[in-house]
Amino acid sequence: MSDPMFDKVNDVLDTIRPALMADGGNVQLIEVKDGVVKLQLQGACHGCPMSQMTLKMGIERELKRQLPEITTVESV
Length: 76
Known about the structure:
about 30% strand; alpha+beta; 2 helices; GMP Synthetase, Chain A, domain 3
């Protein structure tokens, strides 16, 4: 059974991934529950000193803009 919110978040992430991949990184969606999105940063993003800024100011901001029901994004 597919979770519609998981699919919506993944669709938004698909629009962000090319920018992450251009810098050698990527992101994997782990879970969406009660407005909290859990992501795993991959490639060059994993361990990058700018990764928290990318997560909060880039990914989280875009997810909240397109999906107002999202409250926060966490890295796992």
